[in-house]
């Protein structure tokens, strides 16, 4: 079994792992800005992020899976979160499309 660090190192960034769900809005030497769109029932592929701030334009019910756990959340519209570097997978469990703007440090 590989270590969590090795697991993370093997994974691509979100826009590479799931190009149908992540649109690159800006990519420069300082930040990567993405728009995530997940329709009801869709899930992205396992991927990694550097430290990130996420603004959920439209929230919804989502299951976030990491190597260690799985959590289902009701994310309100306009919710903002910050997370240190991590690897995960997201599934839209609700009936509305979830959209978010992700600002990831490099």
Main β-sheet, spatial strand arrangement? 1-2-9-4-7
**Number of structural units classed as domains:** 1
Give the uncertain stretches in residue-range form: 1-5
Total helix count? Answer: 2
Strand content: over 45%
- What is the CATH architecture descriptor? Sandwich
Order of helices and strands: HHEEEEEEEEE
Reported for the largest beta sheet, the result is: 5 strands, antiparallel
| CATH third-level topology | Jelly Rolls
The first-to-last residue Cα distance is 28 Å
Shape: globular
Mean pLDDT: 94
In which range does the helix fraction lie?
10-25%
Per CATH, the class reads Mainly Beta
CATH superfamily: Jelly Rolls
Strand tally: 9
Structural class: mainly beta
Query: What is the radius of gyration?
Result: 13 Å
What report would you give on this structure?
It is a single chain. The chain has 106 residues and is mainly β. Helices cover 10% and strands 52% of the residues. The protein has a single domain (4-105), classed as Sandwich (Jelly Rolls), CATH 2.60.120.10. The chain is built from 2 helices and 9 strands; from the N terminus they run ααβββββββββ. The strands form 2 sheets. The chain has a 5-stranded antiparallel beta sheet with strand order 1-2-9-4-7. The radius of gyration is 13 Å and the shape is globular. Residues 1-5 have low confidence and may be disordered.
């Amino acid at each position: 079994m590989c270590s969590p660090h090795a697991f993370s190192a093997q994974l691509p960034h979100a826009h590479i792992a799931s190009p149908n769900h992540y649109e690159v809005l800006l990519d420069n030497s300082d930040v990567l800005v993405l728009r995530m769109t997940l329709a009801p029932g869709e899930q992205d592929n396992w991927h990694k992020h550097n430290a990130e701030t996420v603004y959920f334009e439209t929230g919804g019910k989502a299951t976030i899976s990491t190597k260690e756990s799985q959590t289902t959340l009701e994310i309100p519209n306009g919710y903002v979160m910050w997370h240190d570097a991590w690897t995960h997978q997201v599934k839209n469990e609700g009936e509305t499309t979830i959209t978010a703007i992700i600002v990831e440090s490099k």
